[in-house]
Amino acid sequence: MTLSGAAIRRKQTSSLDPHDTAATGPALLLEWYDRHRRALPWRPLSGERADPYRVWLSEIMLQQTGVKTVGPYFEKFLARWPDVDALGRASLDDVLRMWAGLGYYSRARNLHACAVTVLRDHDGAFPDTEQGLRALPGIGPYTAAAIAAIAFGRRTMPVDGNIERVVSRLFAVEEPLPQAKPLIQRLATTLLAATGIGTSRAGDAESRAGDSAQALMDLGSSICTPKKPACALCPLNGDCMSRARGDQETYPRKAAKKTGALRRGAAFVVTRGDELLVRTRPEKGMLGGMTEVPTSHWLDAQDDKTALKQAPILKGIARWHRKAGVVTHVFTHFPLQLTVYTATVDARARAPEGMRWVPVSTLKDEALPNLMRKVIAHGFGE
Ligand code: SF4
């Protein structure tokens, strides 16, 4: 096992050792999980085998989104498409509409593509290995490991942000993220239930690997929280290196963050009676396939005048009204600031090529990303 230089020095001067944790940690973790596991809509009852479709659906939704937000979306999807066959036969438009508001829309397109692939190439059954799962659209290393462990009992440890925090504290990992990821992955794997541990409640010898992973996820979200971890309640507190030093909250170490430069642009809210002018974004790229009002390009250091020159050309617009204030939105790689312009055209005005009129009353049925909801609300003066 490779530890950072500082960790190696500590190991040499400390009685705490990853191997001590490996000896007792997995069993302590499972005992704790059996008493304190969170009830979540996608989790089966204790001792029951998880449904791969539910595990997959929840894991895709939980990427970059919290449990509280995902819950209602998960229930809605399950009610409409109860299994992968049903989802694989749905239209992409319907899936995008149902997804609207959850953000990171490439996930919805991949979700649909994955269901189609499972139906077409695997007779509607998810592959039961990490390798097989990773070949599917939208399933990366973490999601493949999570599904393989939770749904199929494979001995693998998916490492999410919660698990990263617990493990980096437990072993006092000095290397900053993201470089520390491979080390944290190796250390996390030592917390998997060894064959035979805790197997009496759930079938075969490997079946509790998923419980080990979910135990760490739960521990990270309820006990080993980013601020003020409740170490007195933690089943691993006897082996925790950072707790022994009293500097738990300083882990995980993080490299200084580079945020993208602010981009600026304009959005155009054009109404014709009770209709709004919209278009569909290209399938590929950011917010792919989603509905939006026309906008200028989003560029660093773009001034208002340049952005306004990119307004859609419609008959009957004498001038654009600039709304006071701006709409801001933070994407993963850059913050965006949009100035909103409004205009009203008469009933005969035709939509420019590639755009369409939609009744304002049916906007809720459009796949509108949160950014566009904010823009439209701002344009309507809400
Ligand atoms: S003892 Fe505290 S810091 Fe260590 S793993 Fe448990 S909750 Fe986290």
Name the ligand types: iron/sulfur cluster
Count of helix runs: 15
State which percent range the strand residues make up: 5-15%
Q: Please give the radius of gyration in angstroms.
A: 25 Å
Mean pLDDT over the residues: 87
Please describe the biggest sheet, giving its number of strands, its sense, and whether it closes into a barrel: 8 strands, mixed
Report the count of strand segments.
8
Low-confidence stretches: 1-16, 196-206
User: What characteristic shape results from the CA principal axes?
Assistant: globular
Report the order of strands and helices: HHHHHHHHHHHHHEEEEHEEEEH
Task: Tell me what the structure shows.
By secondary structure, this protein is of the alpha+beta class. It is built from 15 helices and eight strands. The chain has helices at residues 5-13, 18-36, 52-62, 67-80, 84-89, 92-99, 106-121, 130-134, 141-152, 161-170, 181-189, 209-222, 241-245, 304-308, 370-379, and strands at residues 263-272, 275-280, 291-292, 299-300, 321-322, 327-330, 335-345, 355-359. Strands 1, 2, 3, 4, 5, 6, 7 and 8 form an eight-stranded mixed β-sheet that branches. A hairpin with a 2-residue loop joins strand 1 and strand 2 (275-280). Helix 9 packs across helix 12. The longest helix is centred in the N-terminal third of the chain and has 19 residues, at 18-36. The chain is globular. Residues 1-16 and 196-206 have low confidence and may be disordered. The chain binds iron/sulfur cluster. Iron/sulfur cluster is lined by residues 166, 169-170, 223-224, 229, 231, 234, 236-237, 240, 242-243, 248.
